[in-house]
Amino acid sequence: xxxxxxxxxxxxxxxxxxxxxxxxxxxxxxxxxxxxxxxxxxxxxxxxxxxxxxxxxxxxxxxxxxxxxxxxxxxxxxxxxxxxxxxxxxxxxxxxxxxxxxxxxxxxxxxxxxxxxxxxxxxxxxxxxxxxxxxxxxxxxxxxxxxxxxxxxxxxxxxxxxxxxxxxxxxxxx
Length: 174
Known about the structure:
globular
């Protein structure tokens, strides 16, 4: 995804990408904000989001909607809530249990919790307001870590990578 920071993987040949998608585990961190839904209503404990998505890929563009027949699951947990002027902004961790195009972005938007800075599925007026207030104009979606097991040249292997959370994510919580 364009605009996503952190750990991103690709596989060569392309057909191997589907195998990695099925074998891996990932954790992504997103920032949702005031007037981007109702973050205070999020459960403190982890919960699993289950949705049926539709993915449309044509002309080099991908659009996903929350009204389809493709199962999508993610585990959501609250990492930290903002304080003071940032009250209402919430940092959440999402662990996709399936790997659908734009899955996390659509699942957040469906729950009226669009990711700050999302120019496709987000709340556009609120994104502009957030950028004016904070000076931050970016997608607040970061791939924190990924890991998977795979086989190469007849040997079982393990891959794991982690990318530190950008300072901007915690900076806008104060």
